[in-house]
Design goal:
Blueprint (H helix, E strand, L loop, with lengths): L1 H7 L12 H15 L9 H8 L3 H7 L3 H24 L5 H18 L1 H10 L2 H4 L8 H16 L9 H22 L9 H12 L5
Helix pairs in contact: 2-3, 2-5, 5-6, 5-9, 6-7, 6-9, 6-10, 9-10
Length: 210
Amino acid sequence: MSERLEEEAAIALPSLDGLNPATRRRIEQVVLEIFSQREFYRVGLIEVARAANVSLQTIYKYYGSKEALLFSCLDAQLSELAARMIDHLQGIEDYKERLRKTFWVVLDYFEQRPQVAQLIMSSVYLNTWRKHANYHNPLLFGTFMKVLAEGRSRGILNDQVDERILLDYIFGILARLTQMQVQRRDMGSLTAQSSVLFEMLWRAIARPDA
């Protein structure tokens, strides 16, 4: 009940239906570049507007605030990741291999887009993000929860804890791996090590007797 009320009270993202798609992509790219380099409070909207070659009025008209601008662009990135995930899962019948592919897609996405990981580390304040509707990106988290629910129903994954705990395990490991890859810069390709990394995760979430 409390979670439902929290979701209902979440701050909705602005509607961007009237914004030219090319302009939107340009703004999102600038946001990714600038916010991944500096903390949220160090970035001004006029800087974003100039770099994206749009007026400050356009930014305010469609996004309303710097906070909404950041989270709208982050939502676009997460939705792209979710779309890739769904696409890669097509045609894979074996459950473990489907989860392995899901794990690989996330590692590959952030390896190819390190700016997204850096943006989350540099400019996203978790307590603020949680207040926005895109914190629980339905496409991304919904896909993960669907896969986890299937594993539980088939007796493959650990059923002694809530499914959300399993999600926390997976996301916790993925978040740490991708963030430290950006910071350390000497870990090599995570996707090249994905099979070994996944097997370590699998032992943590699979049913002990499976």
